[in-house]
Amino acid sequence: MTTNKHFTIHHDGVTTPVSRGGRGRPLVLCPGLNSTQADLRELAEQLRRDFEVVTFDLRGHGLASAADRYSFEAFLSDLVAVMAELERFDLPSAPVLVGYSLGADLAVHYASEHPGTVAELVLIDGANPVPEPFITEALLPEFRAMWEDMATAQQAARGTARQVLLTAQEILDLNVEIDVVRSEILDRYRKIDLPISMIMSTSMAGESGEGHAARLNQNWRAGVERLVGEQPHIATSWLDADHGLVFTHAPEIAQIIQSRPGGVGRAASRDAL
Hints:
Blueprint: E1 5-11, E2 14-22, E3 25-30, H1 41-47, E4 51-56, H2 72-86, E5 96-100, H3 102-113, E6 120-124, H4 140-153, H5 168-183, H6 185-189, E7 196-201, H7 211-230, E8 235-239, H8 245-248, H9 250-258
Helix pairs in contact: 1-9, 2-3, 4-5
């Protein structure tokens, strides 16, 4: 068990807590919306056996401070600040950048804007150029109710390393914004000349075979098919899980990442697209 080092970064009026530990190639693990580095602890600990892993919290999440704005660009600035801070360390090589959910989208945008600073990308259930938006008018009330329930449940985590300070409306607005980001993300992929690997869930919206879940899961798979059709070098692994795969399948995800070289998923069982 390695000892982790902790430090904070101050930028854009927020304080970002960072943890660093492990041995091997450097790897940065970027959380997603409504997830914290504490939530990703099992995955991080698994990866620290083979990597020097850096984790952090996005603004309004975990031990990071609250902010006066929550937007895709604001979260991207958190990742940019962490990556810039790492340049001060004598890293043996450019880091592998791993992003979960929104964190995957942030990783793609970062890599497209900062060539030469990342060795490769690992995208976990995010950064998907889905052909249709997730938040449709028909589903808006359902999603709003879901995130209101989530925000209420998160009250119990206030003051802990797992807290999320965003309101239900802020979460809803961000998801609408992420739909727009993903509608344009193919252009970002075209600017990246790196090994890219995806670890995706087969049942992103849950295992119900009917109704909204079935349509959303089909949309999720169609987005990956669209991406790999244009970028056939992207290695894709599918896990029989929902969007919480980083919490329920951390050992499997770590094994896929550790089983490279040449692309994630070579040793993993795959679902045929």
